[in-house]
Amino acid sequence: MASISSDRVRRSRSLGDTLVVGLTGSIGMGKSTVSKWLQEMQVPLDDADATVHRLYAPGGEAVLPLKEAFGDEILSQEGGVDRGALSKLVVGEANAERLKHLEAIVHPLVEASRDHFISKARRQGEEKHCDVVMVVSAPAEQQRTRVLARNDMTPEKFTAILSKQVPDADKRRKADHIVDTGLTMEETKAQVMAFVKECREKVAAERDRDQRLQWLFLAAALAAGAAVAFGLQRMK
């Protein structure tokens, strides 16, 4: 995993700004596990998958518009969205238009939730945009084994999902940092912990430097003021 450097930051940050990391990865690569570890490390986290689960739960904001779009058959007995039933309607090339309709309904709700999280985080010292992209990745066969072990998954469904996602190779190529989740849990977690430590140390060092610069500017301003006062005194 490469270290953080100024030329790898994706937006113009001020010294001391919190690094905002975009965590991504294809299905079965370990995003949920890494997200859990980040929370354990007290890292503020906005989880898009968790947001969708909340939107689909009974009383969630997505339930009514999805019911209107796809009918009662996508509802669970509890009154939420049955993800399995909905998946059958939107997965596969024949259902491409339905998938677009689903995304048009759900994506704005997810984005609104994310914006609310960012707004709240900014008030706590976080920043608005993604600075660094971290990708979780594992060998393709290991990914396939993990996904097919899920209760509601079939080889056909897995293939259909992959066809809609950005290929892992492309994500790796565009990433600033890659976490190899094909290793043991201990080795993978060590990578994440090292990355978080590096982020925190970078920001702390920047803030320390910024504070020193502020004191330097203040001292310079005071010195300039004293020089002016001394000059005026001599003119009297």
UniProtKB/TrEMBL annotation:
Pfam families on file: CoaE
Keyword set includes Transferase: yes
InterPro entries in UniProt: Depp_CoAkinase, P-loop_NTPase
CDD domains the UniProt entry points to: DPCK
Keyword Kinase included in the entry's annotation: yes
Record keywords, A-Z: ATP-binding, Kinase, Membrane, Nucleotide-binding, Transferase, Transmembrane, Transmembrane helix
BP terms from Gene Ontology: coenzyme A biosynthetic process
Designated name of the protein: Dephospho-CoA kinase
Organism: Cladocopium goreaui
